[in-house]
């Protein structure tokens, strides 16, 4: 287990200025925040520090301004919505103004301007990291979703100040450790999504670490095609047949059982409940049909696999879940995993944007042990990569 300090190690925070790296990169529609999940994720850390009398300075990026100030991407736009979620006043400080910070009192919360307005942020420029560090006594990173980027506000600054993991970061790292770091076995992984090419490293990493690898989505079609199955007009990367077979061979050497569907739901078009919809054996897909979901018999078999497991890691849907009824397999297996988690027989950790949406649709997200809202960082963690923002906490001052 990686070792990092948490807020429990912080000591007396009263009157201390604490830079907290958070994720405020929320979707906006007509000037309003359309999903405040990321804002709410910061509350445990920010509330705890403010209640202890710290001066809380929030650092975050917003959009992709490419190192130039852009009023349309100013965090001033997020300050009022954040104040409403936090339930206490929040000040906005333009730029990273030391004099303005000096006017704050213990217990105050302020949002500093978008870190990406400075070209030094994404370059992890030591001078910009030093400018941020000069505003503060301590640094807390509570943005796992940005931990895969070595930027000044996520990595550079952690070497200049005493560095700690915030409550959301701490929960995330502990959950990930339980899932793949030192898991209870047997371990199952569900990996879905459209393309094998986007998850090659994930699959290569997982076959050596899990006991059961469940492959769904368009990715499963690529593996089926590599095994000589005619997948008709299904989405598949036929040029990756060699790579798919290499992964299957590596799994066999590692005693990892790979589960591919043997019955599937097909149609001639991707549309809601099309007239051509049918369920068939995987070897009976017609030339003009597309595989759009895993069939009910395969889902039942996968549910039986999960009942034998103690740990589950999930990334990606099993079918074209945005279009009903091709969400059926994802919903059914997610509900099984949720029920097993609630019984106490399974530790279930899921992550990635599509995955969160799919689990929410199944009404299962709240019953999983942990659901990560991080996209890129979760994927890189599943690839076995060291995340710069996490590594910096371990090596911090």
Task: Give an account of the 3D structure.
The chain is of the alpha/beta class. The chain folds into two domains: 7-169 and 387-395, 3-Layer(aba) Sandwich (Rossmann fold), CATH 3.40.50.1260; 183-363, Rossmann fold. It contains 14 helices and 17 strands. The protein has helices at residues 37-41, 43-51, 76-86, 98-102, 126-133, 167-181, 200-207, 217-226, 241-253, 296-307, 328-343, 353-361, 376-382, 388-395, and strands at 17-21, 28-29, 32-33, 55-59, 91-93, 109-112, 138-141, 163-165, 187-191, 212-215, 257-259, 263-267, 278-281, 290-294, 311-315, 347-351, 370-372. A six-stranded parallel β-sheet has the order 5-6-4-1-7-8, with helices on both faces. Strands 11-10-9-15-16-17 form a six-stranded parallel β-sheet, sandwiched between helices. Helix 10 (296-307) runs parallel beside helix 11 (328-343). The longest helix has 16 residues, at 328-343. The mean pLDDT is 95.
Structural class of the helices, strands and pairings?
Answer: alpha/beta
Total number of distinct structural domains? 2
Strand content: 15-25%
Which superfamily, in CATH terms, is the homologous superfamily of the largest domain? Phosphoglycerate kinase, N-terminal domain
Q: How much is the average pLDDT?
A: 95
Query: What is the tally of helical segments?
Result: 14
**CATH architecture title of the largest domain:** 3-Layer(aba) Sandwich
How widely separated are the two ends? 19 Å
* Uncertain parts: none
Query: In which order are the strands of the major sheet placed?
Result: 5-6-4-1-7-8
Gyration radius, in Å: 23 Å
The fold-level CATH name of the largest domain is Rossmann fold
- Please tally the β strands and state the result: 17
Largest sheet: 6 strands, parallel
Portion in helices: 25-40%
Which shape, going by the Cα principal axes? elongated
CATH class of the largest domain: Alpha Beta
């Amino acid at each position: 287990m990686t070792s990092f300090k948490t807020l429990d190690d912080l000591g007396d925070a009263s009157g201390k200025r604490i830079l907290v790296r958070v994720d405020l990169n929320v979707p906006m529609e007509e000037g309003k925040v359309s999903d405040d999940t990321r804002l709410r994720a910061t509350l445990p850390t920010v509330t705890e520090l403010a209640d202890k009398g710290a001066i809380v300075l929030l650092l975050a990026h917003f959009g992709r301004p490419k190192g130039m100030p852009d009023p349309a991407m100013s965090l001033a736009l997020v300050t009022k919505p954040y104040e409403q979620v936090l339930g206490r006043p929040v000040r906005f400080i333009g730029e990273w103004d030391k004099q303005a910070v000096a006017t704050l009192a213990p217990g105050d919360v302020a949002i500093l301007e978008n870190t990406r307005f400075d070209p030094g942020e994404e370059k992890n420029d030591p001078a910009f990291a030093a400018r941020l560090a000069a505003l503060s006594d301590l640094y807390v990173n509570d943005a796992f979703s940005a931990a895969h980027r070595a930027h000044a506000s996520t990595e550079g600054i952690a070497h200049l100040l005493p560095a700690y993991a915030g409550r959301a970061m701490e929960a995330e790292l502990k959950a990930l450790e339980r899932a793949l770091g030192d898991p209870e076995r047997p371990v199952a992984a569900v990996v879905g999504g459209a393309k094998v090419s986007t998850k090659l490293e994930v699959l290569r990493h997982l076959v050596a670490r899990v006991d059961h690898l469940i492959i769904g989505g368009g990715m499963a079609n690529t593996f089926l095609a590599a095994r000589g199955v005619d997948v008709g007009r299904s989405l598949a990367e036929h040029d990756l047949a060699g790579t798919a077979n290499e992964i299957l061979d590596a799994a066999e050497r590692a005693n990892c059982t790979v589960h591919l569907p043997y019955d599937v739901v097909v149609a001639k078009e991707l549309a809601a409940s099309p007239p051509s919809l049918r369920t068939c054996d995987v070897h009976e897909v017609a030339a003009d049909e597309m595989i759009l979901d895993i069939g009910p018999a395969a889902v039942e078999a996968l549910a039986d696999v999960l009942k034998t497991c103690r740990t589950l890691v999930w990334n990606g849907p099993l079918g074209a879940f945005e279009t009903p009824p091709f969400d059926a397999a994802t919903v059914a297996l997610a509900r099984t995993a949720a029920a097993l988690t609630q019984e106490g027989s399974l530790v279930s950790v899921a992550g990635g944007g599509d995955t969160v949406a799919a689990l929410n649709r199944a009404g299962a997200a709240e019953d999983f042990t942990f659901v990560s809202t991080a996209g890129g960082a979760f994927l890189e963690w599943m690839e076995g990569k060291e995340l710069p923002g996490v590594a910096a906490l371990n090596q911090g001052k």
